[in-house]
Recover the amino acids of this structure.
C-alpha cells in the first residue's frame, strides 16, 4: 500500500514552480517561463536530480537532457511527464506529472517497492520538434534529424542540448520499463465544467493536418465586378462553411477542427486575392472518423474550386494516429477513481499530444487527468485546486498499487 | 477641326513601350516594367519631353518629376495621364492617355489651336502614396509628408525624386488649366464583354477602407471543444457571409467589396486564433450607398462579436468620396462617341482611381475609356485592339473640338 504525503508533494510542486517563476508583481500569478534548455530549465532538472537521489533513485541524464530517476529493480513502471514549459506557461503543465511520479516512487520505496522509476522528458512543449525529448528517446525522431531543428529564436537543437553536455550519460533503453503512467492537467474544460475530479484517458486523439491552397485570379479590387471574380479568400470562406455543415453528421462533441493560419496573396487591400493558403487540422480518437473527415475535406475543396473556376492544392497530410491507452492500466485507474471519487470521474480522450504518445511505441501506457480551471492552459493563468491535485495523486498511487510490481 | 494621325500616335505608343519593355522571350508580350523613378521611367520621361518639344510644347518637370508639355496660351485644357507603370505592368495603363494627349495637342497646333497642354504625372501607380505625383501637385498630399513615404523596397520618396533633381523646375500652378481630360483603358470587363468601343466616365467611384479586428480567445486546438471556442477566424468567416447577404438589397452590379488581407494571431496550425485582423474595402459611385454599406459593416461586425462573446475593433476609415466628372465634358464626350460609334458606347463609372481624381480639386475633369481585353490590367497580358485605341483617340479629339478653346 503506497501512502503518499500530500504536503511533501505540494511543497515539491511549489519549489519546482520557483524555477523560472514569472514576476507575480505583474499579475502573472503562478506563471512560469522555463522553456527547454533555458537556464531555469537546467537548474530545475539539477534540483529534480537531487530530489530523486534523496528518494533513493539513481538520477540519470541522457544525451538530450531527458532526466530519469532509476529504480534498483531490473524492470518496473516508469512514472512522469516533463518539466520544461511553454514560453509563457503555467505551473502544472508537465510539472504535475513529474512531481506526482516522484512522490509515488518515493512513497512506494518507503513501503518496500523498489520497482518504480521516474522521468522528466525534455522539450515536450516543442521549442524544436513535437514532444522532442520523448520522440528521440522512443526512436520516433532520429537524433541527427533533431539536431538540425531550429527554435523560433534561431537556436539549433544541437547547440541547445550542448548546454547540458556536462550532465549527459548514455541512452536509457525503453525496454527497461514495463509501462508508463502520466498524470497531467486536462488543459480542456470538461472536468472543470462537470465538477469532476479525475479523467481516465482512454486514448490520445489522432491528428490530421494539411495546408490547403485555393488558386483563383488576382485582380484589381476596384474594376473587377463581384460576379467576375475568382477570389481565393471567398473560396476559403465557402469551404469553411461547407465543411462545418458536412461534419455535423460525422463528429462527436470531442471532435475538433481548426483553421489557425491563413495567408492571402498578394495580401493587399486593393487587390482581389488570387491565392489563399491555410492550415486545416482535425483531431479525433477514432481513425475511421478522421478518414471520413478527410474525405469530406478533399471532396469539399475540389467541389468549391471547380464551381468557382479555380484550382486547389491539397498539401501533404501529416498523420498522427490515435494512441489507445493499455486496457489494464485504464481499468486500474478507473477502479481507483471509482473508489476515491465515486461518480465524480469520467473516461475521456486526450485532445492534446503527450509524452505518453511516444512511450506507447515500446510499452503499455496510461494517463490520468485532473481538472484545469476554466480549461485554461499554456497561459500564466493555468491553475487547479490543490485538493484536486492531491486527489489525483492519490488515485494514481492507488492505480499503481493495483497494477503491482509484476508484468502489466 | 483637330485631325489626329493614327500612325504617328501608334508609333509613339510603341516607342514608349520600349522603355522598360519586359523580355518578350519570356512570354511577357507587350509587358512593361517602368516603375516611378526607375531608370526606364526617367529615360521615358526624357524622351517624352523631347517629343513635346518637337510638337511645339514647352517641356517642364516639376519638383517631383511630373512632366508637363506647356502650350503658349495663358489658359487652356490639360490632357494626359501618367507614364510610370506597375512593377509588372501593361503597355497602355497611363501611357495611352499621355500619348493620346500628346497627339491631340500636336494635331491641334497644326490646326491653329495653341491652348492644349499635356502632362505625364509621376507615380500614379503608387510606389509611394496613392496617385502620388498628381496628389502632391493638387495639394492633396503635402510634399513633406510625401518625402517620408517609403516604397516596398525601402526607398524614401525624398531619395527617389532626388534622382530627377537635375531636371526639376518649379511647380506648375493648377490654376493655369481650364480643365483636364484623361483617356485610359477601362481595366475592367464591361466594354470588352459588350463589344463596345468607348466608355464615357460619369464619376470615379468613392472608396471606403478600414481594418477590422475580431478578438476572441487564443486556445489549444486539441483540447478546446468547438462549442467553447471564441475563434476569431470563424468570426471573420461569419462576418464575410453576413455582409454579402445584407449588401444584396443595397448594391448595384458596379458596387464592389474586397477582403484582400487577413492576419490571424498567433497564426499556428495548433492554436485556435485569438485575433483576426483583416482589410475591408468597398467602392461605389454613390456616397449614400457607401454610407449604407458602412452601416451594415459596423452593425454586422458588432452583432457577430457580441453573439460570440468577442470584441471587435473597427479601425480608422479611409474615405475617398466619389468624384463627379464635369457635365460639360461628359456631354462633349458623349456627343463625340455617339457620332463616331453610335450605340456602341456607354456612360459608366470608373472603378479605379486616376490622376483625374486629384485634378478635380482645381478644375472640371473628364475621362474616356477604351476596352481592356478580358478586363485584364496590372499584368503583362494587358491589351487593347489598336483599332479601339485609334477610335478612342478620335473620339477624344472630337470632344476637345466640341469643347473649344474657351472657358469650359
Amino acid at each position: 500500500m503506497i501512502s503518499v504525503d500530500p504536503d511533501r508533494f505540494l511543497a515539491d510542486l511549489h519549489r519546482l514552480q520557483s524555477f523560472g517563476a514569472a514576476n507575480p508583481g505583474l499579475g502573472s500569478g503562478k506563471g512560469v517561463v522555463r522553456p527547454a534548455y533555458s537556464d531555469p530549465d537546467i537548474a530545475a532538472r539539477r534540483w529534480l536530480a537531487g530530489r530523486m537521489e534523496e528518494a533513493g533513485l539513481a538520477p540519470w541524464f541522457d544525451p538530450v537532457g531527458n532526466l530519469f530517476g532509476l529504480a534498483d529493480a531490473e524492470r518496473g513502471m516508469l512514472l512522469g511527464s516533463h518539466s520544461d514549459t511553454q514560453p509563457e506557461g503555467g505551473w502544472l503543465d508537465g510539472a504535475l506529472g513529474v512531481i506526482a511520479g516522484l512522490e509515488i516512487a518515493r512513497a512506494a520505496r518507503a513501503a518496500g517497492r523498489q520497482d518504480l522509476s521516474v522521468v522528466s522528458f525534455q522539450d515536450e512543449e516543442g521549442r524544436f520538434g513535437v514532444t522532442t525529448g520523448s520522440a528521440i528517446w522512443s526512436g520516433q525522431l532520429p537524433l541527427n534529424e533533431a539536431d538540425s531543428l531550429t527554435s523560433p529564436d534561431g537556436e539549433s537543437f544541437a547547440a541547445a542540448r550542448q548546454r547540458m553536455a556536462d550532465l549527459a550519460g548514455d541512452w536509457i533503453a525503453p525496454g527497461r520499463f514495463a509501462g508508463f503512467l502520466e498524470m497531467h492537467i486536462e488543459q480542456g474544460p470538461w472536468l472543470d465544467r462537470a465538477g469532476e475530479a479525475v479523467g481516465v484517458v482512454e486514448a490520445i486523439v489522432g491528428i490530421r493536418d494539411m495546408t490547403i491552397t485555393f488558386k483563383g485570379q488576382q485582380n484589381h479590387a476596384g474594376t473587377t465586378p463581384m460576379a467576375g471574380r475568382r477570389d481565393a479568400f471567398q473560396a476559403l470562406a465557402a469551404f469553411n462553411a461547407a465543411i462545418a455543415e458536412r461534419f455535423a453528421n460525422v463528429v462527436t462533441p470531442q471532435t475538433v477542427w481548426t483553421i489557425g493560419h491563413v495567408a492571402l496573396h498578394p495580401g493587399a487591400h486593393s487587390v482581389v486575392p488570387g491565392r489563399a493558403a491555410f492550415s486545416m487540422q482535425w483531431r479525433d480518437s477514432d481513425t475511421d472518423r478522421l478518414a471520413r473527415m478527410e474525405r469530406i475535406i478533399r471532396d469539399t475543396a475540389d467541389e468549391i474550386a471547380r464551381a468557382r473556376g479555380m484550382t486547389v492544392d491539397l498539401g501533404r497530410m501529416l498523420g498522427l494516429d490515435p494512441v489507445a491507452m493499455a486496457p489494464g492500466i485504464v481499468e486500474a485507474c478507473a477502479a481507483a477513481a471509482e473508489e476515491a471519487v465515486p461518480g465524480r470521474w469520467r473516461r475521456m480522450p486526450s485532445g492534446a499530444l503527450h509524452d505518453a504518445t511516444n512511450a506507447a511505441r515500446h510499452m503499455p501506457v496510461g494517463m490520468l487527468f485532473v481538472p484545469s480551471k476554466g480549461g485554461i492552459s499554456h497561459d500564466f493563468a493555468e491553475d487547479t485546486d490543490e485538493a484536486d491535485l492531491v486527489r489525483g495523486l492519490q488515485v494514481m498511487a492507488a492505480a499503481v498499487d493495483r497494477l503491482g510490481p509484476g508484468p502489466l
User: Anything to note?
Assistant: Chain B touches chain A through 52 residues (CB under 8 Å).
